[in-house]
Amino acid sequence: MYPHIEPFEVSTLKVSDLHTLYYEISGNKEGRPVVFLHGGPGGGTDPKDRTFFDPTKYKIILFDQRGAGKSTPTACVEENTTWDLVKDIEKLRIHLGVDKWHVFGGSWGSTLSLTYAQFHPDRVLSLVLRGIFTLRKSELRFFYQDGTSHLFPDAWEKYIEPIPVEERHDMILAYHAQLFSEDEETRLRAAKAWTRWEMATSKLFVDPAHIAEAERDTFASAFARIENHYFINEGWFRDGQLLEKQEIDKIRHIPTVVVQGRYDVVCPATTAHELKKVWPEITLHIVPDAGHSSREPGIAKLLVEATDGFAHL
Fold first, then answer.
1. How far apart are CA 59 and CA 36, in angstroms?
2. Mean pLDDT across 192-209
3. Strand ranges of the sheet holding 20-27, from the earlier edge strand across to the other edge
4. 158-175 pLDDT, tens digit each
5. Which GO terms of type biological process are on file (predicted)?
6. What pLDDT does residue 163 have?
7. Coil, strand, or helix at residue 259?
8. 213 has pLDDT over 90
9. What pLDDT sits at residue 206?
10. Dist. CA 302–CA 257, nearest whole Å
11. Is 305 left (phi over 0), alpha (psi -120 to 50) or beta?
12. Does the structure show a pLDDT above 90 at 209?
């Protein structure tokens, strides 16, 4: 990964009467533009996200999606759908005077990257994707109901703890009731438990510092509420929409690299495998000693190699 750099521009963009997005630009002012689409939804960006790109070659554009990070209002789910985010990306592109750009996204960021590219294939120079997630019912069920629970039973016990036994047959729905409760204490307790579950399962080797992020009230609230809002609505997609042939045909010409951890239990490798089957033109790397996180060494190395490889486009 490249050394840490500071942005040369930090600003906001009002995208609706309600929402204002935070964005920043770093690297080479005359470089090839790349937009970083963060995960969650609701995760927000981090200064370390700049380090996937050669700052001498790329103009690096990071922004926080609606309700996430430094965007306002925090944790807001009103006017916050997949289609709103796709429109926001276009508004940002036009606002910055960018004709075409590279698109980089992992986890939910891969979902949004694929969606944006399918809506605006003429604006995408390349895709670098990590931890493929397409918001199918089977993917949600694996992580939030019956799958990862078999591999992390200790973390699962803490995750289900706030939920009454009679409601545990549908964890996303049960959490929705608490995350949107009128009682602030109930909301925050649920947000931290929801967030802790993902942080505890994101790396091959569990990182206590990563889990500790769930204790930050503002982060946990935005992360949990927005994720749950998207997931209970199944992203407003048809089940499997992003993998449908007619959707893939729209982007088949775009050079694409996918990096996938073999032991990713948040966004299991089966989805990346399905993407490769319907889109054989992509380059798919399965990292044998990694989970979900972009910070794991094998994943980070391949992501940087991919962005280096596309810097001339």
1. 11
2. 94
3. 9-14, 20-27, 58-63, 32-37, 101-106, 124-130, 256-261, 283-287
4. 999 999 999 999 999 999
5. proteolysis
6. 98
7. strand
8. no
9. 86
10. 9
11. alpha
12. no
And the tokens for 260? 């996938």
Residue 125: helix, strand or coil by DSSP?
Answer: strand
pTM score of the predicted model: 0.98
Active site residues: 107, 264, 292
- Lookup: tokens for 152: 């992390």
Whole-Å CA distances, 35 to 50, 91, 262: 10, 13, 26
Both tokens assigned to 251: 């982007």
Q: Alpha-carbon Rg of the chain, whole angstroms?
A: 18
What gap in Å lies between CA 275 and CA 260, rounded to an integer? 12
Q: Are 197 and 137 in contact (CB under 8 A)?
A: no
User: Is the distance from CB of 69 to CB of 216 less than 8 angstroms?
Assistant: no
CA distance 74 to 39: 16
Scored b (16 or more CB within 10 A) or e, 230-254 reads bbbebbebeebbbbeeebbeebeeb
Tokens of 93: 């592109």
How far is residue 293's CA from residue 298's CA, in Å, rounded to a whole number?
A: 10
Query: Is the CB of residue 135 less than 8 Å from the CB of residue 111?
Result: yes
Compute the distance between CA of residue 198 and CA of residue 133 in angstroms, rounded to an integer.
14
